[in-house]
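We give this protein:

***
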Amino acid sequence: MSFNEAPLYGEALKSEKRRRIIRALAELGGEASFSQIERASGVTGNTLVHNLNALQLKFHVIESPVKGTYRLRFKTPLSYIFAPQKAHPIVYLGLLGRRDRRDIPETKVALELLKKEGIIPQLIYVTTSVEALQEWKELKLPYHWITAYESEIADIDAVKNKVQQELKILMRDHVVILDCTSATKPATIAYYELANQYLTPLIYIYEPTGVLKWLISRQDLIRRLGIG
């Protein structure tokens, strides 16, 4: 996704009719026909045609995979914002640091805390160093790994480069939750910057107390986009 193709969410959401169309698409699972959008949004006829064209060609928020069908280009953040009660496929994208004296991976702690909030990711992606992965190898953790060398995990830009493309792919069909808890401080900063750039929800786990903190929550995203 080039800069010129990046969704212009703020501009797109200034219109009440466009917000209704986006909400309808989110509630319909992210993809729907013209007639389904018309019924669900209450925006009809040429007015709907005009706004769909604007959302696709001007604001790059939706796309039309086949004639007469429209879909959100990215389910993150719009599905998360406009249809929070719908069972969207969720991806957890976290970090895993060196083992040190830990018996339980921080990723597992985070997933248990999310579960208590009713959030159960369908896919789990974790960025870690080759060295850290070696230290946890006997647990045979069932995650999708994004691996880097220790020197890369200690570099903000290197972490972003490792994660960014995978993140954009996952955002298309999933609600992605980033977790910036583990690994190195530069990795934490990299995840924080990515979450702000791509408007993804972001969590952090306070390790001593085991408390989950939403650094970027749904309400934060709503406020940032000026729709609540």
Q: What stands out?
A: Residues 3-73 form a domain with the Arc Repressor Mutant, subunit A fold (CATH 1.10.10.10).
